[in-house]
């Protein structure tokens, strides 16, 4: 059974959703027969590549809300994250274009390291306050999970995985996804948002029960 998760590495709810999915999988009797595939989705593809900006004032401007109101919303997300064992400091965050990060995740998938790369990027951004928007920031993280530095630099320079990133975004749009995380099981069942682990477990159980019986 395959679970595809559309996610962005600067989406706080995506990291929460990842932890909840892991909790659900830990309770799922058939977890050894489940493949998790990470798909690309950019929260804000309009940000020019190479530019970064403080997240707090940018969100306040985007939604037309006072900064302190957005800060309070961030505190709520931080409390939710803490319940999943994650330590966020969202008001101090920096945002930027995540195309290169998504390209890196696709490269890692070719080397059997996609899950580790996704986790490392999320952890770096949310728990360490490290940038994940440029080659200089991404290469050390890639090397940490076992990727070859020269290959990473070459792949991010020639953008060989960009078509795959854009294809992921197009597929999400075709599925009607307007935000992330977005979970799809066997291209038959879906759930939007960082659903509680209990609901994700129900999704897995339903998808498993719906599988066609093996022919004899």
Automatic annotation (TrEMBL):
InterPro entries: DSBA-like_thioredoxin_dom, Thioredoxin-like_sf. Pfam families: DSBA. Residues 3-204 form the DSBA-like thioredoxin domain. PANTHER family: GLUTATHIONE S-TRANSFERASE KAPPA (PTHR13887), THIOREDOXIN SUPERFAMILY PROTEIN (PTHR13887:SF41). This is DsbA family oxidoreductase.
């Amino acid at each position: 059974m395959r679970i595809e998760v559309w996610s962005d590495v600067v989406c706080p709810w995506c990291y929460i959703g990842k932890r909840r999915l892991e909790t659900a999988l830990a309770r799922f009797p058939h977890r050894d027969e489940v493949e998790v595939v990470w798909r690309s989705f950019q929260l804000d593809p309009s940000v020019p590549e190479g530019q970064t900006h403080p997240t707090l004032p940018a969100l306040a401007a985007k939604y037309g809300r006072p900064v302190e109101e957005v800060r309070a919303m961030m505190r709520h997300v931080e409390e939710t994250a803490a319940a999943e064992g994650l330590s966020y400091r969202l008001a101090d965050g920096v945002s930027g274009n995540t195309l290169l990060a998504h390209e890196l995740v696709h490269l890692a998938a070719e080397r059997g390291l996609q899950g580790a790369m996704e986790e490392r990027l999320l952890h770096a951004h949310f728990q360490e306050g490290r940038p994940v928007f440029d080659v200089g920031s991404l290469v050390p993280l890639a090397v940490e999970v076992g990727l070859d530095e020269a290959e990473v630099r070459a792949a991010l320079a020639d953008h060989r995985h960009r078509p795959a990133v854009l294809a992921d975004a197009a597929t999400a749009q075709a599925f009607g996804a307007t935000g992330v995380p977005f979970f799809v099981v066997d291209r038959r069942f879906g759930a939007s948002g960082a659903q509680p682990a209990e609901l994700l477990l129900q999704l897995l159980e339903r998808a498993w029960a719906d599988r066609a019986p093996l022919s004899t």
